[in-house]
Amino acid sequence: MPEEPIIDLQSDQYFMGEALRQAAKAYEREEVPVGAVVVRAGRIIARAYNQVELLHDATAHAEMLAVTQAEEVVGDWRLNECTLYVTKEPCPMCAGALVHVRMQRVVFGASDLKGGAAGGALNLLQWPTLNHRCEITQGVREEECRSLLRTFFAEQREKKAGPGGGNVLN
Q1: Which residues of 102-111 are buried (b: 16+ CB within 10 A; e: fewer)?
Q2: Which of 62, 125, 144, 156: CA 20 to 30 A from 131?
Q3: Phi and psi at residue 30, in whole multiples of 5°?
Q4: Which candidate in 31, 63, 71, 89 is catalytic?
Q5: Residue 37's closest CA among 56, 9, 11, 1?
Q6: CB within 8 A of 160, min separation 6: which ones?
Q7: What pLDDT was estimated at residue 162?
Q8: pTM of the full predicted structure?
Q9: Distance (Å, rounded) from C-alpha 81 to C-alpha 148?
Q10: Is residue 158 annotated as part of the catalytic site, yes or no?
Q11: What are the tens digits of pLDDT across the range 12-54?
Q12: What are phi and psi of 32, to 5 degrees?
């Protein structure tokens, strides 16, 4: 009989590191650098990063792509024995999907006070009237996750501003 995996803070740190590696792939492809991994029984069963621009698909968030992969591995749409690690707090679309697939636990790095749906702007993951509530752990490797996002968006603003930083004198 296999031993039960021990999920502890060290495991959270490790698996968030794997999600950060996925976020770096998104960054390299000029996608918003969000990465996600799905873990079941102490093993990663899915890895993904944002591919909205690459796939021309507004739903191609890291979480959504990782969930689809995990469903294929598990052979079911129910992921109630799984944990999702994601570098940024899930948006309402992703949070809704995580509730729908009955994700046991969601661990994220950077909070999103404007659009996050795991306690930032609202908390769909634990909405009282929905049929499932996910456990939430937030702030794992938060500074690394936040730093990657900040750097990405600063570079994007710089590119849009062009030479001279966009300061035009009349």
Answers
A1: bbbbbbbbbb
A2: 62
A3: 60, 35
A4: 63
A5: 11
A6: 166
A7: 73
A8: 0.90
A9: 29
A10: no
A11: 999 999 999 999 999 999 999 999 999 999 999 999 999 999 9
A12: -55, 125
